[in-house]
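Next comes a single protein record:
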Amino acid sequence: MKRFHVHARVTDLGAGIAFDSKLFGTEPTRVEADDAKWKLDDPRINFAVSARGAAPDVDHLGFQVDDDGELAELKARAQAADMALLDEGPTSCCHARSDKHWVTDPQGIAWERFRSLHDIAVFREAAAAAGAALCAPAQTAEPAAEAVARCC
Protein backbone atom coordinates (compact mmCIF):
# COMPACT_ATOMS: atom_id res chain seq x y z
CA MET A 1 0.00 0.00 0.00
CA LYS A 2 1.34 3.40 -0.93
CA ARG A 3 1.94 6.21 1.57
CA PHE A 4 1.89 9.81 0.31
CA HIS A 5 5.14 11.68 1.08
CA VAL A 6 5.51 15.42 1.63
CA HIS A 7 8.83 17.03 2.56
CA ALA A 8 8.77 20.68 3.65
CA ARG A 9 11.67 23.01 4.38
CA VAL A 10 11.41 25.11 7.55
CA THR A 11 13.57 27.86 9.03
CA ASP A 12 13.08 26.77 12.65
CA LEU A 13 13.03 23.01 13.09
CA GLY A 14 11.91 23.15 16.74
CA ALA A 15 8.95 25.37 15.93
CA GLY A 16 8.09 23.15 12.95
CA ILE A 17 8.16 20.01 15.07
CA ALA A 18 6.03 21.64 17.79
CA PHE A 19 3.44 22.85 15.27
CA ASP A 20 3.27 19.62 13.28
CA SER A 21 3.07 17.50 16.46
CA LYS A 22 0.01 19.48 17.51
CA LEU A 23 -1.39 19.36 13.97
CA PHE A 24 -1.05 15.56 13.76
CA GLY A 25 -1.80 14.91 17.45
CA THR A 26 1.40 12.89 17.88
CA GLU A 27 5.14 13.29 18.21
CA PRO A 28 7.43 12.56 15.24
CA THR A 29 8.38 8.98 14.43
CA ARG A 30 12.00 10.10 14.09
CA VAL A 31 13.89 13.29 14.98
CA GLU A 32 17.44 14.15 13.89
CA ALA A 33 19.51 17.31 14.24
CA ASP A 34 18.26 18.72 10.93
CA ASP A 35 15.00 16.92 10.21
CA ALA A 36 11.99 15.08 11.59
CA LYS A 37 9.39 12.75 10.12
CA TRP A 38 5.96 11.45 10.97
CA LYS A 39 4.76 8.14 9.50
CA LEU A 40 1.02 8.35 10.03
CA ASP A 41 -1.71 5.87 9.23
CA ASP A 42 -4.57 8.39 9.38
CA PRO A 43 -4.04 10.00 6.97
CA ARG A 44 -1.56 7.54 5.46
CA ILE A 45 1.34 9.93 4.97
CA ASN A 46 5.10 10.19 5.45
CA PHE A 47 5.49 13.87 6.37
CA ALA A 48 8.99 15.27 6.82
CA VAL A 49 10.43 18.67 7.71
CA SER A 50 14.03 19.78 7.48
CA ALA A 51 16.06 22.88 8.22
CA ARG A 52 19.10 22.94 5.95
CA GLY A 53 19.42 26.60 5.00
CA ALA A 54 17.01 26.75 2.05
CA ALA A 55 13.96 29.02 2.04
CA PRO A 56 10.78 27.58 3.61
CA ASP A 57 8.74 25.78 0.97
CA VAL A 58 7.62 22.36 -0.15
CA ASP A 59 10.87 20.57 -0.95
CA HIS A 60 9.35 17.64 -2.84
CA LEU A 61 6.42 15.22 -2.95
CA GLY A 62 6.36 11.49 -3.43
CA PHE A 63 5.12 8.02 -2.69
CA GLN A 64 6.60 5.56 -0.23
CA VAL A 65 5.77 1.95 -1.05
CA ASP A 66 5.80 -1.21 1.01
CA ASP A 67 7.31 -3.65 -1.49
CA ASP A 68 9.50 -3.95 -4.57
CA GLY A 69 6.52 -4.76 -6.81
CA GLU A 70 4.83 -1.43 -6.06
CA LEU A 71 8.06 0.46 -6.72
CA ALA A 72 8.57 -1.41 -10.02
CA GLU A 73 4.97 -0.56 -11.00
CA LEU A 74 5.54 3.17 -10.36
CA LYS A 75 8.79 3.05 -12.33
CA ALA A 76 7.18 1.20 -15.25
CA ARG A 77 4.32 3.71 -15.28
CA ALA A 78 6.81 6.62 -15.50
CA GLN A 79 8.76 4.90 -18.27
CA ALA A 80 5.59 4.10 -20.25
CA ALA A 81 4.57 7.77 -20.00
CA ASP A 82 8.03 8.74 -21.29
CA MET A 83 8.77 10.76 -18.13
CA ALA A 84 12.37 11.79 -17.48
CA LEU A 85 13.47 9.41 -14.74
CA LEU A 86 16.37 9.72 -12.33
CA ASP A 87 16.94 6.22 -10.99
CA GLU A 88 19.05 6.27 -7.82
CA GLY A 89 18.46 2.56 -7.22
CA PRO A 90 19.77 1.42 -3.84
CA THR A 91 20.88 4.51 -1.94
CA SER A 92 21.21 5.97 1.52
CA CYS A 93 19.66 9.31 2.26
CA CYS A 94 17.45 10.90 4.87
CA HIS A 95 18.66 8.59 7.64
CA ALA A 96 17.41 5.56 5.69
CA ARG A 97 18.66 2.98 3.22
CA SER A 98 16.19 2.93 0.33
CA ASP A 99 15.61 1.98 -3.26
CA LYS A 100 14.29 5.02 -5.16
CA HIS A 101 13.76 6.94 -8.33
CA TRP A 102 12.59 10.46 -9.13
CA VAL A 103 10.41 12.12 -11.76
CA THR A 104 9.71 15.82 -12.25
CA ASP A 105 6.25 17.18 -13.09
CA PRO A 106 5.65 19.91 -15.71
CA GLN A 107 5.84 22.62 -13.02
CA GLY A 108 9.29 21.44 -11.94
CA ILE A 109 8.17 19.73 -8.72
CA ALA A 110 10.27 16.68 -7.93
CA TRP A 111 8.42 13.46 -7.05
CA GLU A 112 10.38 10.89 -5.07
CA ARG A 113 9.23 7.26 -5.29
CA PHE A 114 10.89 4.99 -2.79
CA ARG A 115 10.90 1.94 -0.59
CA SER A 116 12.72 2.36 2.73
CA LEU A 117 14.59 -0.75 3.76
CA HIS A 118 15.91 0.31 7.18
CA ASP A 119 17.10 3.29 9.21
CA ILE A 120 20.73 4.41 9.25
CA ALA A 121 22.56 6.72 11.65
CA VAL A 122 23.75 9.33 9.14
CA PHE A 123 21.85 11.48 6.67
CA ARG A 124 23.77 10.40 3.56
CA GLU A 125 26.26 7.54 3.98
CA ALA A 126 28.39 8.24 0.89
CA ALA A 127 28.93 11.88 1.87
CA ALA A 128 29.69 10.97 5.47
CA ALA A 129 32.19 8.28 4.43
CA ALA A 130 33.94 10.68 2.06
CA GLY A 131 33.99 13.43 4.68
CA ALA A 132 31.97 15.64 2.34
CA ALA A 133 29.29 18.10 3.27
CA LEU A 134 25.88 16.50 3.54
CA CYS A 135 23.52 17.09 0.65
CA ALA A 136 26.25 18.08 -1.78
CA PRO A 137 24.89 18.68 -5.29
CA ALA A 138 24.37 15.56 -7.34
CA GLN A 139 26.59 15.27 -10.41
CA THR A 140 23.83 14.77 -12.99
CA ALA A 141 21.77 16.80 -15.42
CA GLU A 142 18.54 14.87 -14.89
CA PRO A 143 15.44 17.01 -14.13
CA ALA A 144 15.06 15.78 -10.54
CA ALA A 145 18.74 16.25 -9.74
CA GLU A 146 18.06 19.47 -7.84
CA ALA A 147 15.78 17.63 -5.38
CA VAL A 148 18.31 14.85 -5.01
CA ALA A 149 20.96 17.45 -4.25
CA ARG A 150 18.74 18.92 -1.51
CA CYS A 151 18.16 15.35 -0.35
CA CYS A 152 15.04 13.72 0.80
Summary: Confidence is low (pLDDT under 50) at residues 131-143.
